[in-house]
Amino acid sequence: MSLNWIAGPVVQYGLLAGGMLASLALFISGQAEISSMRRKAKKAEGVFSEAVRSLEEQVEELRAGLSALAEESGSTRGAAARAQVVKMHRRGESVESIAEALGARQGEVALMLKLEQMLRPSTQDGAGA
Q1: Nearest to 90 by CA among 128, 40, 34
Q2: Nearest to residue 71, comparing CAs of 83, 53, 60?
Q3: Can you tell me the distance from the alpha carbon of 27 to that of 53, in angstroms, rounded to the nearest whole number?
Q4: pTM of the prediction?
Q5: In degrees rounded to 5, what are phi and psi of residue 66?
Q6: Average pLDDT, stretch 37-65?
Q7: Do residues 129 and 86 lie in contact, with contact meaning Cβ atoms separated by under 8 Å?
Q8: Which of 3, 16, 77, 113 fits 73 for a cystine, CB–CB 3.0-4.6 Å?
Q9: pLDDT score for 72
């Protein structure tokens, strides 16, 4: 059996050209896959950004509602009482002692503190004391 045909330059160049064409085909299909993934990512980004905007609007509506409820509510729940609760809390008094001093329920005092924290997220406990 003669294997001289393997050593011929035409066969070698043919194999080289076939390998290069296969590499080119893989490269092109890879680029197409990358392009497809980019389109999908851009579409998902739009969906997520819209969802984030919707959630931010809902949070703002809830904050506005909480603020309105806090302003409308009774004497121990009013803005002056809330300010007193926050002031006492910043001095380091416990929820129990604040509730006892103001004649309010502990849950009500805790709620006022949480409301204050939500309405003024940049204000930290102990700041300005």
Answers
A1: 128
A2: 83
A3: 39
A4: 0.41
A5: -65, -40
A6: 92
A7: no
A8: 77
A9: 63
Domain map of the chain by residue range?
Answer: 33-72, 75-129
- pLDDT tens digit string along 22-39? 999 999 999 999 999 999
As a three-state string, the secondary structure of the chain is: CCCHHHHCHHHHHHHHHHHHHHHHHHHHHHHHHHHHHHHHHHHHHHHHHHHHHHHHHHHHHHHHHHHHHHHHCCHHHCHHHHHHHHHHHHCCCCHHHHHHHHCCCHHHHHHHHHHHHHHCCCCCCCCCC
- Which amino acid is residue 72, in one-letter code? E
Judged against a pLDDT cut of 50, whether residue 129 lies above it is answered with: no
In angstroms, rounded to a whole number, what is the distance separating the alpha carbons of residues 62 and 76? Answer: 22
Measured in degrees and rounded to the nearest 5, phi and psi for residue 63 equal -60, -45
- CA gap 91, 122 in Å, rounded: 18
Residue % of the chain over a pLDDT of 90: 40
